[in-house]
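Researcher: Next entry in the queue.
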Amino acid sequence: MAVANSVTAARAGAGMIQGTINGIGERTGNADLCSIVPTLALHVNSTLQCRDNLKEITSLSRFVDETLNRAPNGAAPFVGKSAFAHKGGLHVAAMERSPLSYQHVDPLDVGNEKRILISELSGRQNIMDKIREVGVSMGEGIASERATAILNRVKKLESVGYTFEGAEASVHLMILHATRGYCPPFRILDYSAQVFDSNIDSASRILAKEENAPPGIATSMGPIIAKGPTSRATIQVRTLNTQDEVFEMGKELALPYTDTLEVSDGSGPVDALASALKKALLPAHPYLESLELVDYKVRILDPESATGAATRVMIEFFDKKKDETWTTVSVDRNVISASLNALVDGFEFALIEHACECMLCDEFFD
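Model: Structure for this entry, 366 residues:
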């Protein structure tokens, strides 16, 4: 309402409009300048001194959110991640012919980008657009055939609980794995996770983890004992041998790959697995040092199955060097297995640009 009133006032001749970036302020109802300015510039054709810099407004919006440690509003007009997102198959096909048939402005005008979402409502055109976005080179006929196969797989996976609308990295990898010539940069050979805890009393365990409680302070339930790691994970990973002298004058001096076994402790099995996986991969892929896990979500898909229920795990990653985020998804009745699969996809996605230097193909070792 604040945005609508502001735009109406401007059209009626108002010379000054008050607002804030993203509508953030001390009180409620602040007019969002990230909606007002593009509307006046692109729809009302007002004379604005900042019009030439309109392409920076999405970056400005996200910079303010990042500075305030605030999650960006994906549904925000013009600057939101989903402002120019498209999902339906017919919808996307029409977009290919006339982008403005489903978009009121070109997303590039406000520094945003078009997103093609993949879901059970998608059509073959959605996948075709994703294949072009990934940059896979193949003939139109092969691309169409692969797109149909990938679409069928997406629909099958979503029928058992997967959701790809917020996990575009998993779709990206699905396309790459369906492409001849792509090989993953590493392979998980085996893993295990252990959970141990000497204190099974939930009340005192919660007290022990209170950050403000000094170690050893006495309570009505006895002394609080500072707790350390409660889980340990072991993982064996195969990566390319990065030693300089693997081959010499056509003669193989060492195996072209190396198997690394790492152990790590953590506050839980998933934390320990993530730490062990990163430690195992860093020697061959030091780029992963800039990778962070910033969100971890678990959803029970069939509560009637109780402790045997299928779980959907979504993990969000952040690349500090590129200032990019991506999300991966996995579903399994074993929450640890689902978590590891999502972790593996996230780490692999981070290494896509470097995969040409570290391919692990079965044919390579035959």
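Model: Residues 362-366 have pLDDT under 50 and may be disordered.
Researcher: Noted, moving on.
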